[in-house]
Batch of 2 targets.
Target 1
Amino acid sequence: MGDGDCSIGLVGLGTMGRNLVLNMADHGFAVAVYNRTGEKTREFMEQEVGGRKIHPGYTLAEFVGHLQGPRAIIILVSAGPPVDAVIDELLPFLSPGDLIIDGGNSFFRDTDRRGRTLAAKGLLYLGLGVSGGEAGARHGPSLMPGGPPAAYERVRAILEAAAAKVQGELCVAYLGGGAAGHFVKMVHNGIEYAVMELLAEAYDLLRRGLGLSPGEIAGIYEEWNRGELASYLVEIASPVLRRVDEKTGQPLIDLILDQARQKGTGKWTSQEAMDLQVPTPGIDTAVMMRDLSGYKAEREAAARVLQGPPPVFPGDRQAFIRQLGRSLYAAMVLAFAQGLALLQRASQVYDYRLDLATVARIWRGGCIIRAALLEDIRAAYQARPDLEHLLLDPRLGREVMARLPNLRAVTAAAAAAGIPAPGLMVSLAYYDALRSARLPANLIQAQRDYFGAHTYERTDIAGTFHTHWD
Ligand code: 6PG
């Protein structure tokens, strides 16, 4: 059993790969597996496979031999050169019409390049964003495929079976051509960075500003998760904050070094947003704060000399917690709005033809940024697919507006207490800039013209002007 029987193959038995294989096999698909080191394959076969239809290949020839033609192979290895290496190794074993699917967090320009190179060889290529971590891969991830429609159709049944479902609806859909899938996944991660920064700031305000214990803060996140903030990232904050370190008996969160790492997807989102001239300040700020967190020694040195106000909030504590929850909702909507604005622009520039209601739909389950508010976001784009900006949706605009007094109060309190809350602050500034029919960019234009004769346009007369300022 096995030879030529498998409808899908998977290369790369890391955490995501192993779990995705088990997921597909549980849905009745025979899966061929291969890993660079055979030891890992052996271990997987012995410890996890059970009676499932999973067939190991200890050489690529053996692996490819398990697959029905035309073949479909998912690669789940680290983004970057390892993906090219696996493709190069596979090529001699493949025939025209075979399909390679990259399920990693690949940079979308790499996906474009690989798609073109493989198309020239008669092969199909699908860039597949996979979100949801280990549990998602095992029990239902959100899947973001992009590439030739025919490539998607070939594996549609498998992806639909493996994907998360929310109220009977699938968290997978064909998104668009080229690297559309990996672009959407990149922006998903950018939003993930922004939301995580906001949740970290809220924790800091509660911990330092109100002096609450991690356990008390966990209770607040639990409460928040029962309301409008309901989302995966808010949900997992509570068990994280409640975890007690076995070695010391202290809250583990207090012992974790305050330096956030990153693999680059958030930074790519910001870089791409700047290239496309789409403002995404919440995402940029989140990347900036992860970078700043890395300067631990400098921060410790500065903490000894640079003065600030006492980091405490006077006033009604319960009122502050309520205001903070409402601020988080507004800032979360704004983070999604920025990511979706980037997707909208990229869709025009790269001709992805994204349907943002579909993107919101497949993000409602399985993925890291799944949140109750995605239901409203989806409804907004369903009602108006060409909505210029998420905040122009009457309902979401109204909901955010109603919480702006809270966001103003919370950011003012953070500023007064000297507790950094740049994600919340920049959300407020973005909102205020967005609703400013007139911004001070006129002075920037005048100065550019003053020192560089860069010219300017006028509000009252058409044309381009230059003033001899001296
Ligand atoms: C997901 C996650 C996943 C991964 C991130 C972490 O959607 O399942 O986003 O892709 O955990 O890459 O990214 P950083 O290491 O950059 O924080």
Note: Strands lie at 8-11, 31-34, 54-57, 72-75, 99-102, 124-131, 142-146, 165-166, 169-170.
Target 2
Amino acid sequence: MIEKSQSHLPITFSMNPSKLKKVAILGSTGSIGTQALDVIEANPAAFGIELLTCHSNAQLIIAQGKKFLPNVVVVTDESIYKEVFNALDPLDIKVYAGMSAVNSAVQMDSIDIVLTALVGYAGLMPTINAIEAKKPIALANKETLVVAGEIIIELAKKNGVNIYPVDSEHSAIFQCLAGESQNPVEKIILTASGGPFRGKKTDFLRNVTKAQALKHPNWTMGAKITIDSATLMNKGLEVIEAKWLFGLKMDQIEVIVHPQSIIHSMVQFEDGSMKAQMGLPDMKLPIQYALGYPIRIESNFPRFNFMDHPQLSFEQPDRDSFRNLQLAYDAGISGGNHPCILNAANEVAVAAFLQDRIGFLQISEIIEKCLEKVTYLRAPKLEDLVNTDKETRHKANELIK
Ligand code: NDP
Ligand code: MG
């Protein structure tokens, strides 16, 4: 059962609603980053922008810098530095380049909350640096908790830092747990849309194209998470993310396919009562809830109407055709560096699929082979995970050649 002390949920209301929150957005040019800026633009009395970062989208970060006038902008692809610097320096915006600049910028005194909206393993070190500087985290970057959940949660506890989930399923669980700090959780149920290939079998999946896989039925997201949704790896990563965020055992976390994406996830308590959080699929709501917690800020987001959705349906995920979900469960159960291997192999395989270098089913094959070949470590330290990530990427790339 979940113990109060195991869970990493904030239990005190610490926000002063009259104070402007200064936000750092890591990955402001992405799907989550741009939607977060929409939320912030709509709530100028609640939020200001202190730091924006991106990798290589010079045009968009320049436009964002001009509009939101952050104190600092960091680009991690150094080749765009000059262009961004020339455009933003005259506006008195400090512009830096490189991951080490992201790692220092997140620690600026003026930042009140850090939204980690960059994609993949690249989110790990900035999140650690932000926690060490005692910044509350609005966490979209689930890969950070998959790779190093135990280390991150320990570090957050040590520094008294709250982690607010942005992922819609985890936000749903978080919302269901509001006011329930005395009540142990029996289990949680994460809902999955099933992605574009729901109901399809291996023979069909063997030949699916990148274009088909990128067409998600309910959500518009970055390319990597869209492919993860098509393979069900996204749900697997979310199971591991939930384990750490809510202090649960793997067997307390179930996945159910709910194609309409109206119920975002559910919690069952010890008395058998089940709470669900519902709404139209729109990431702005969980982003706003994480940034504004504990205040529910008034919004004009489209409202859900039961009569538009008279049928809500549920089915079991097909773990035989979509093997990534089972691989992720197994990695979550064996723990140690297995989730880190799973994540690194998946990042390499998804990138190769997006470059048309491998087929859809090979994604699972590469992950499985990496889990077999890379040495298992039961209690890895951060440096072990950094090495595991490197070694796995090397192995995965060899398998793709
Ligand atoms: P996107 O691909 O749309 O955006 C990624 C952002 O990260 C961009 O700003 C990109 O910059 C930046 N970035 C990419 N690579 C690097 C790198 N190596 N170093 C530093 N910055 C980098 O992703 P999403 O917004 O879809 O997803 C972001 C995170 O949120 C992921 O972890 C995802 O799993 C999670 N998430 C996303 C959801 C969604 O609806 N999109 C829902 C729930 C969780 P540039 O644009 O310059 O390349
Ligand atoms: Mg999600």
Note: The domain at 21-166 is CATH 3.40.50.720 (Rossmann fold).
